[in-house]
Write a structure and sequence with these properties.
293 residues, alpha+beta, 8 helices, globular, disordered C terminus, phospholipid metabolism, lipid biosynthesis, zymogen, PSD-B
Length: 293
């Protein structure tokens, strides 16, 4: 990666938080409502999938965070294995194995898992990861990929670089620099993590209100902070959080827990099967059949 590429310099000089605050005010304002049909046409969004009629959205931000008329439907052959579902709509930006405590960010670039999680851990060594990028056109709600116990939610302060192709290509260790929310889960004694990355315009990630997390606490600077701790069971497909523009979700699994069966560049939707849980008694040798395969 060229350390002083013009795009890198531009990203460094970008007034990220100022731009995010300004965009937030505009997009949350009722004055942005006329922009909704423009946004739909610009990104080719299927407006019929929105859970509410377009006139019901009071601002562009509300439309960004819209729910959709879609239910999780298990594939016909999931009776043979315990599936892992995509938590979001998006594109598989990277998928692979964790080596030397690092995961791939983009071609020729990687980042530290310990830095990403703000926790000095080798727990995920030789495990697997998948990075899903949400474009502004995507459905922005985040769902639970497999039934599990939520154990803790941690806020890691940071900046707000764009997480699109330019950001991942020209900014070293981008995901460890940006503000993020790390959620830790446990299933069958296997602990895994879901990391929701903030971005320019997006700002902080919104967690389901039932967790009682105060937004102001989520925005604090300085050291990582524990937002919530306990033992709460969530089922696959449960809605858990949402973004307000476009961002990135990273799933991290330790070795011998899962088999991820998606490829880089593949488009997925929330509730699509992206792999299988390997610790369940239901696992068989049946290959995973994906739509269009």
């Amino acid at each position: 990666m060229k350390r002083w590429h013009p795009w890198r310099l531009a990203l460094l000089l970008l007034p990220k938080r100022g731009l995010t605050r300004l965009a937030g005010r505009i997009f949350r304002s009722p004055l942005s409502k006329p922009l909704i049909p423009v946004f739909i046409q610009l990104y080719g969004i299927d407006a019929a999938e929105a859970a509410s009629p377009l006139h019901a959205y009071r601002s562009l931000a509300e439309f960004f965070a819209r729910r959709v008329k879609r239910k999780g439907i298990a594939h016909a052959n999931t009776e043979y294995f315990t599936p892992i579902y995509s938590p979001v709509d998006g594109q598989i930006a990277e998928v692979g194995q964790i080596h030397a405590n690092h995961a791939i960010q983009a071609k020729g670039s990687s980042y530290s898992i310990s830095a990403l999680l703000a926790s000095a851990t080798s727990y995920f060594e030789s495990g697997t990861f998948v990075t899903i990028y949400l474009s502004p056109a995507d459905y922005h709600r985040v769902h639970i990929p497999i039934a599990a116990h939520v154990k803790r939610i941690v806020h890691v302060p940071g900046t707000l670089f764009p997480v699109n192709r330019l950001g991942t290509q020209y900014m070293d260790a981008l995901f460890t620099r940006n503000e993020r929310i790390v959620t830790w889960f446990v299933r069958e004694e296997c602990e895994f993590a879901m990391v929701k990355i903030g971005s320019t315009i997006v700002g902080s990630v919104q967690i389901d209100p039932s967790f009682g997390i105060v937004k102001a606490k989520q925005r604090q600077r300085g050291n990582p902070s524990l937002l919530w701790e306990g033992d709460r069971v969530l089922e696959a497909f449960d809605e858990y959080a949402w973004f307000e523009f476009g961002s990135t979700v990273i799933l991290l699994f330790p070795p011998n827990c899962v088999s991820l069966e998606v490829k880089k560049g593949e488009r997925v939707k929330a509730f699509d099967v992206i792999g299988r849980w390997q610790l369940s008694d239901r696992d068989n040798v049946e290959p995973l059949q994906r739509d269009g395969s």
